[in-house]
Amino acid sequence: MARINFGGVEEEVVTRDEFSLEKAREVLKNEVVAVVGYGVQGPAQAMNMRDNGINVIVGQREGTPNWDKAVADGWVPGKTLFNVEEAAEKGTVIQYLLSDAGQRSLWPKIVECLNEGDMLYFSHGFSVTYKDDTGVIPPPHVDVALVAPKGSGTSVRRNFLAGSGINASYAVHQDHTGRAAERTIALGIAIGAGYLFKTDFRNEVYSDLTGERGILIGALSGVMEAQYNVLRKHGHSPSEAFNETVEELTQSLIRLVGENGMDFMYANCSTTAQRGALDWHPRFRDAVAPVFDALYESVVSGNEARITLEANSRPDYREQLEKELAAFRDSEMWRAGAAVRSLRPENWQK
Fold it and tell me: Which of these, 56, 94, 98, 289, has the minimum number of CB atoms within 10 Å of its CB?
């Protein structure tokens, strides 16, 4: 492992220099990796491992859109694509990648498929951390671990195909075989992680739920909407409001942050932008800090988990979700966004 200084604090990380793909293949050569669930993370992790020469099968309920997607992605029914229970029985590593609500509902069947020495693999610490609500309590005769890519499944696959990777955390919750750590790291390398940093199930889910509800999705979309509405209220056109709120962020500034950090982005803006941003930065920070404190407390208490499980277990969940997403899609701000995106040079008709 490499020791890297992160802002004055040293951490151990695993890179592909120390743990090569060849080593990962050697560690996993006798494993059958069953990817159970072909929704968000499942396709990317399964296809990346397949492309990297790992023996992978997929478990998905037949007759669903995700079954059809798996077939379209080259998984063959009866050979590399099975129903969930059959895949779990065949696998020596069971990558449990169903939704959190789905993991709770199918757990009684999955636990019966776990044999001595198998590995139960997650990409989220949710089910194990909130076991009182999910009932997911792994038996003592298996390894239990996670690899959690810090990005959507779409990004995991895109970055892999582009020759890069998405950073991921990893954790060993239960080491029955004495090989859990090397199996976990090998799986992280096989799915194409850029580098792996160590965590535990609780910290992974606490940070993940806070991040998703906070800056990564919830806060980002909320702040965008607030600024857009203020600009429109004061007479700015939809195009101008959207470009100043979203387009400049996603197509320019955030790329500078990703390239070399926040100071690099500041240094490549006008002096007027620098001065204003430096003055207003602490006001925004202090204004939202209480919201983040409340969010983190709600995550730690299990309240966010209970809300998620209750909502996602309702029979009409997908219909209600579509209504909520349609509110974004049909709003003026995001209809303006669709028009702006259509005018990007790469979308011009030749």
Answer: 289
Cα four-point dihedral sign 175, 13, 125, 58: negative
Pairing of strands 2-6, 9-15: antiparallel
Helix (H) or strand (E) holding 24: helix 21-27
| CATH code of the domain in which 71 resides | 3.40.50.720
Q: What is the distance of C-alpha 319 from the center of its chain?
A: 23
Q: In this predicted model, what pLDDT tens digit does every residue of 282-304 receive, in sequence order?
A: 999 999 999 999 999 999 999 99
**pTM for this structure?**
0.90
CATH code of the domain covering residue 243? 1.10.1040.10
**Tokens (6 digits) for 305:** 């988990």
Amino acid at 194: G
Parent domain of 322: 212-347
* Cα(154)–Cα(163) distance, integer angstroms: 14
Supply 166's token pair: 């998405």
Alpha carbons within 13 A on the beta-carbon side of 97 = 28
Which residues are identified as catalytic?
A: 124
C-beta separation of 73 from 80 below 8 A: no
Q: CA torsion angle for 114, 116, 119, 122 (degrees, to 10)?
A: 40
Q: Kindly provide the residue ranges of all beta strands, DSSP E only, lying in the chain, ordered along the sequence.
A: 2-6, 9-15, 33-36, 56-59, 81-82, 93-96, 119-122, 143-149, 168-174, 195-198
Q: What is the pLDDT of residues 108-125, one digit of tens each?
A: 999 999 999 999 999 999
Tell me the CA distances in angstroms from 231 to 42, 122, 240, 278, one per residue in order: 40, 43, 9, 21
12 closest CA partner among 169, 187, 189:
169
Q: Which of these three, 153, 173, 199, is where a domain ends?
A: 199
